[in-house]
Fold each of these.
Amino acid sequence: MSDDCCSAPAAMRPMEEALELLLSRARPVTDTDWVDTGQALGRVLARPLVSPLDVPPWDNSAMDGYAVNSADLPRGGGALRVAQRVPAGARGQPLETGTAARIFTGAPLPEGADAVVMQEVCARDGDWVRIEAPVSPGENVRSRGEDLRAGGRVLEAGTLLGPQHLGLAASLGMSRVLVYRRLKVAIFSSGDELVMPGQGLAPGQIYNSNQFTLHGLLQSLGCDPLSLGIVEDSLDATCAALARAAGEADLVLASGGVSVGEEDHVKPAVEKLGTLELWQLAIRPGKPLAFGHIGNTPFIGSPGNPVSLFVTFSLFARPFIRRMQGVVGDVAPRSLWATADFDWPRAGIRREFARARLENGDDGQPLVSVHTSRSSGVLSSVTWANGLAVIPENRTLVRGDRVQFIPFSELLT
C-alpha cells in the first residue's frame, strides 16, 4: 500500500501526538568523552561550563584613541600631554594627572584612566593631544567581567555545540570539553528490488538511494552510522537484521517494509521481537511510520519511498536523535511564515509537507513556491527545494495566503 493513499483509518496519529510519544521514549546516552575544543563541533555538552575567570579580565579600550581621566578635562574638552603608548598585549604605567595615554583596541586601561576618547575627535600636536569633545567616565571602555564573571555558568549541559560555543570555551582557556559520546545508529534497507550503486540493474531493480540519504542525514547530526546493507524481503531475514542491529547500536533505523503489503515484513518482525508503539501518521508523505523497541533498543521504520524517508526522518527521527544525544530544550524544527506563491485548491485529510522553495519576490518579500510533483518517489524534488511548506489538514490555499515554511537549515543540523 502506498503511503500516499488517501484513506484515513482511525488509527492514524496526529503529528504532535506522535512526536510527543517519541520524545517521551527517548533515553539520552550517559557515557562521555573528553575532546579537544577544536574538535567538539556538533557534540553535546555533558556538564555545565563554568568560567574560571572574568571576561574581559581587565578594563580595556573598545577602540583606538586616548585613555584619559575624565576629571582632567574641562567640560568642553582640552589639551593633555601624551605620556605613554599602550598597544594591545602590553600593560601601561599608572596615568599621571594631566596626561593621556595613546591606546589601541583591546589594550588594558592604565590605572587612573576612566575613559577612552576615539581618535577621530582628537587632534595630535607632537607630545600633546587636543580633545574636541566632552568626555564621560566609562566612555569607550569595556569593563572587567562585563561579558562573563568568574564562577558563573557559561553554558548548560545539553547544549549542542556550535562554532560560537567553541570560541566561547576557548576564550576561557579551555582546551578540552566534556561531551556525550556519539550515538551509534544502525541502518538497513528492505527490498529485493534494491541494488547498490556500481552494480548493473536487472529488470525490476532500482538503486538503493535510501542508504545514502540516511547515512548523510545521520552524519549531519554527528552520529556514527552502522550500515547493514540491503535485507531481503522475508520475515526471517528481517528478524535477523533487526536482532543484529539492536545488539550493536543505540538506535535502529529501517527504510521500507513498514506498510501492509505481503512483502512488508518489518512491522511483523518488530512485533515478533519486541514492541510496536506507533504505526501510521496523519501526514503526507510518510503515513506508515513505525516506532517501537527491540529489547531496550529503540526502532524507527520509515517508508521506502525516498521523499517519505527524508520527510519522516527530518520531522521525527531527527528530534528523537537529538534527545538521545542529550540535547535539552526544544528539538523540534522551527518554522517561519511567508506568502504563498501557489494555489492549493484541494483540501486533504492529512497534514501535507510539500517540497517548497523560499525566495525573495520582486519587492524583496519572501515567497514560497511548491514543486509540481506530489509523488513521494521523486527525490529530485528534494534537491530542488530548500524547505517544506506545511499545508494544514482540511485547508485550501490561494496565492497570497500566509503559509508555514520549515527551512532545510532547521532539518539538516
Amino acid sequence: MLAASPKPRLKILLAAPRGFCAGVERAIQIVERALAKWGAPVYVRHEIVHNRFVVESLEAKGAVFVAELDAVPDDRPVIFSAHGVPKSVPAAARSRAMTYVDATCPLVSKVHHEAERHFAAGHHIVLIGHAGHPEVIGTIGQLPVGAVTLVETVADVTRFEPPPAAGLAYVTQTTLSVDDTAAIAAALRMRFPGIVGPRKDDICYATTNRQAAVKELAAQADALLVVGAPNSSNSRRLVEVATGAGCPRAMLIQRASDIDWTMLAQARTLGITAGASAPETLVDEVIEAARTRYEVELAELVVTREDVHFNLPRALAD
C-alpha cells in the first residue's frame, strides 16, 4: 500500500495589527450592553459594522437590523452604526421620544466636529471619500445641503469649482488608502493654496496601521488574503495596498470557504490580514482550512502594537 503523499509546505505570515479596531469593539459592546440593559429586541439602524459574521452573531442575541428608523417601534431602543449618521436621524428619533444610542466611532465624530468647525468659520467643506459609503453620507449630513463637496479622485479636484467668495477646508473619510488620500490632498493644496486641512490626519490609526502592515507583508508573501466584507471600505483598501506594494495575488474573502485555492497553488508564503471589522475567529478559520491542505508554518509580522480604547456612551457605561 502506497503511503499518502506528504502535504506541501506553506509559511503563513500574519499581519499585526489586523482585525478589530477600538471603534468596532466599542460598537459591538454597545449592542451587547443594550441587549443586557433593555432586553431583546434592540434595533440597529444599518449594519453596526460591515461584517456579516458579526451582524449574524448579534442577530442571534436579539439585535434587529433595519434600514431606516421607520422600521423601529417607538417603544424599543435603537442604535446608530459605527459609521455615523446624518443629524436628521437622531433628530427624527428625538421627535418620536425614542431611546437611542449613538455608536459612531469617536474618530468619525472627530471628522464631524472638524467639518462643523470649518463651516462655522465660513469655509466650504471638501470631503475626500467614496460616494455612497455610510460614513460619507453621515459626514455630509452634519451640515446644510450644499455645504460639502465630495471628491473621490485627483481628477475630481481639477473639475471642482468652489462657491464664489468662500474659504475652503477639507476633511476625509477615515478608512481610505493613505497614499491615495495624500495625493488628493496634495492636489487640493496645489490648486487652492489657502485651503485649510485637518490638524491631524483624518484617516484613523487602525486604517493607517493595517495598511502599513500589509505593505510589509506584500514584500514577503507570494499571495495575500484579506479577511473582510466586500462592503468594508478599509478591507477593500487593504487589497489595493497589497497589490500596489507588489503582491498581485491579493484576494478579499469573507470566510475560508471563499478561498480560491488554485490561486495559491504555487505560493510558498501566504500573507493573511483582516479588515478592522473582521473578528479574529475568521482568521483562525482560514488558518485551519490551510492546515487541511498544507503543512503550515505560522509566524507573525509585527509592525506595531495597538492599545487604543474608547469609552462606552454614558447610558451604557454602568
Amino acid sequence: MKGADIVLGVVIAAALLPIAYAAVFYGIPSHTGFTALRPLARTILTVMFNKLDRLAWTASPEGVTSVLWDYRGVDTLYETMVLLTAIMGAVAVLHTRGVDIVKRVSLRRSALSAILDRTSRVVVWLTLIVSAAMAVNGHLTPGGGFVGGSALAVVPVLLVAVFTALLLPALGFRNVRMLRVRMAALLTLITVVTVPLTLGGYFFQNQPKPTSRFPGYPPFFPGGVPLGGTLILLNIIEFVAVGMAFSIAFLYLTAGEGGEGGGE
C-alpha cells in the first residue's frame, strides 16, 4: 500500500468521524435523538393492538407487520408487483427449453453417501417448517411473509448444492409451474384486499372504520389468540409469492447445469 493511500484513508476517516458522532449522539440529521420515539412511531405502537380503540388498531401486536400490511399496505402491494415484474423480466430474458433429464436423477442420487443424503433431507424439512412458521406467526412475532418466503427459497438452493439441479425437475420445481403458483398467490392477495370494497368498505381495509359499512376481518382465533384480520392471510400469501419468485430466479441461474433450462 502506498503512503498516499494511507494518508487519504486517514483524511477520509477524520472527516467522517464528527459526522458519525453527531448523527448517533445528537440525532443529526434524524428527527429526534436515538433515545426517543418519533411521533409517528409512538402513534403506531400505541394503537396497533389497543383493545380500547378498535377503530384505529390493526389487531396485531407485531409492529412491522402492522405497518407493512395495514398502515402502508398499498405501498407493500406495489413492492410485490415490482418483484413480480422483475421475475417476469428474468423469465423472458433467460427462459430456455432443455432436454428431459428426470430419468438421470436416480443415477446422480445413487452416488451420494448415506450421511449426506439423510442429513440434507432433515435440513430441507427443518427449513420448510421454520420458513412456514415465520409467515404464519408474522403477525405475532418478528418475521412475516417476505422473510418466510426468502427462507423457503433456500430449499432449492440446498437441493442444488447437494444433488445438483438434476433433482429439481423430478421434485416438481419447474419454473413455469412455480410462476403459475406465484400468479395465483397474487390474485388471491388482490381478492383479499378488494373484498371490503364490494361490501361498502375501503381498499385494504382490515379492521372496522367509522365511515365504513364493512365490519372488518376477524381479529382473533377461537380462544383469544390474535389473528390480525387480514394480516395473517397476507403474510401467508406473500410467503408463497416470494418463495416462488426467488426460487424461479435461482433455478434460472442454475439453468446451465446438465443442459436443463428449468422450463416445461
